[in-house]
Specification:
- The chain is of the alpha+beta class.
- It folds into two domains: about 5-140, Jelly Rolls (Sandwich); about 145-250, Arc Repressor Mutant, subunit A, CATH 1.10.10.
- It has nine helices and nine strands.
- A five-stranded antiparallel sheet has the order 1-8-3-6-9, with helices on one face. Strands 2-7-4-5 form a four-stranded antiparallel sheet, with no helix packed on it.
- A hairpin with a 2-residue loop joins strand 4 and strand 5.
- Helix 1 packs antiparallel against helix 2 (about 115-140) and helix 4 packs across helix 5.
- The radius of gyration is 20 Å and the shape is globular.
């Protein structure tokens, strides 16, 4: 068995509503049948339109803003076969709406619970995951600039070191302005904003799960000084690192 179903809902979100940052212990697929708005997966913002959908890995923080009334399907599932693991991101359904049709069939089985529906759900969910894997592979091979992917991966591995945007642009073989424009167009944030978000996210983990000093965290996350760290952290999170640790640390 490739996977198992955790939940499935079909609902409408009212215009000008917001679902705050949250996460799940399973994969989630959110399919937008109508409406427009935005969603943030971890540190990347995406715009959704009808027949777009987001794939969200277990543990990924995400939110959702609805510019107009939005009809949405959202399904949660676990994947047991490592070779079928999926990546976070937003995709667009195929021209014949294959993903939507599969979701509708799964929803019908889930709601009606006819004889042997568990077996049918396993089969349909496995088919869905295979189609999602194919779509992601196609998107990764044709829809993105390999040089930008390389630079983004480099940032993911070295965000806590001193990074110069001019150097990153050179690595991608672009001028600084062109690199900044393409990076933001592709990932929804500028290179500088992406680096800062990685540093802040790592700082949050250290504040919550360790007792190391604020100064050490600043250095560990790539900030020049602890003063810079405290200023930027408060700007992004709304609290000082010390206050955040006091309120949200899981260390006892």
């Amino acid at each position: 068995m490739i996977s198992n179903l955790d939940f499935f809902y079909h609902t409408k979100r009212l215009a000008e509503t917001y679902i705050a940052m949250h996460q799940h212990t399973c994969y989630e697929l959110v399919y937008y049948q109508s409406g427009t708005g935005t969603t943030r997966l971890a540190d990347i913002d995406y715009r959704y339109d009808p027949h777009a959908f987001t794939l969200i890995r277990p543990g990924t923080w995400h939110d959702e803003r609805h510019a107009v009334e939005t009809e949405v399907l959202f399904i949660g599932f676990h994947i047991h076969n490592p070779s079928f693991q999926l990546s976070d991101g937003m995709l667009v359904d195929t021209p014949d709406y294959k993903i939507n049709r599969l979701l509708q069939t799964i929803l019908f089985e889930f709601q009606n619970k006819k004889a042997h529906y568990h077996l049918q759900l396993d089969l349909l969910l496995s088919t869905l995951i295979i189609e999602l894997k194919r779509l992601q592979h196609l998107s990764e091979s044709t829809g993105k600039d390999d040089k930008l992917i390389y630079v983004r991966n480099y940032i993911n591995e070295h965000f806590n070191q001193k990074l110069h945007l001019e150097t990153l642009a050179s690595m991608a073989d672009y001028s600084y302005d062109r690199f900044r424009h393409l990076f933001k167009e592709t990932y929804g944030v500028s290179p500088g904003e992406y680096i800062l978000s990685k540093r802040i996210k790592h700082a949050i983990e250290l504040l919550r799960h360790t007792n190391i000093s604020i100064t050490s965290i600043a250095s560990e996350c790539g900030f020049s000084t602890d003063a810079q760290f405290c200023t930027l952290f408060k700007r992004e999170i709304g609290e000082t690192p010390r206050a955040y640790r006091i309120l949200r640390s899981v260390i006892t």
